[in-house]
């Protein structure tokens, strides 16, 4: 590879190594340092290609290349961790005291962590069982999930107990919550059930 082509390659490599800074939400100092290590490694290697007159006692070019490889390896590992942090599903914890006996019309407001949340969708579910252990209160219940974005209720999704729903948190500026409401038809409004909230995760 000629010297001119080598520099073109290094410029392209430097631009590519800057991608994590542009594409990832690097709000953690460690992730930012890892992303910066990649272009730094390219710069160090580029410096080692500059021809200098005379010979020094220290093989600085060789040391620069070794340093660039070490920094790039550490930085690449950190960037892979940053990618994982920016794409993995995040668990959502339900507020204490949500369970207990529920009747028609009872509801709870579940806060979504993050201001704003780090992901654009929330998948969640809930189940019920009959307090009296008889009747069809489990089969006739309907759970309504209503995203509340910055204090404004959004279109709801209804599902039978035990079925997962996927809720969009699009447009949130600061805070997102989900209101879960228990509904029964007119013939079953006297039902009393225990509510159990299942797994809930934030995801893209």
Q: N- to C-terminal separation? A: 43 Å
Mean pLDDT: 74
Order of helices and strands: HHHHEEEEEEEEEE
Please count the beta strands (DSSP E, at least 2 residues each).
10
Principal-axis shape equals elongated
Structural class: alpha+beta
Q: Helicity range of the residues?
A: 25-40%
Count of DSSP helices? 4
Radius of gyration over C-alpha positions, nearest whole angstrom: 28 Å
The parts where pLDDT drops under 50 for at least 5 residues are none
Strand content: 25-35%
The main sheet comes to: 5 strands, antiparallel
Structure description:
This protein is an alpha+beta fold. Helix content is 33%, strand content 27%. The chain contains four helices and ten strands, in the order ααααββββββββββ. Strands 1, 2, 4, 8 and 10 form a five-stranded antiparallel beta sheet that branches. Strands 3, 5, 6, 7 and 9 form a five-stranded antiparallel beta sheet that branches. Helix 1 runs antiparallel to helix 3 and helix 3 packs antiparallel against helix 4. The longest helix has 28 residues. It is elongated. The model has no long low-confidence stretch (mean pLDDT 74). Keywords: Membrane, Transmembrane, Transmembrane helix. This is DUF4190 domain-containing protein.
At a glance:
The chain has 204 residues and is α+β, with helices and mostly antiparallel strands. It has four helices and ten strands; from the N terminus they run ααααββββββββββ.
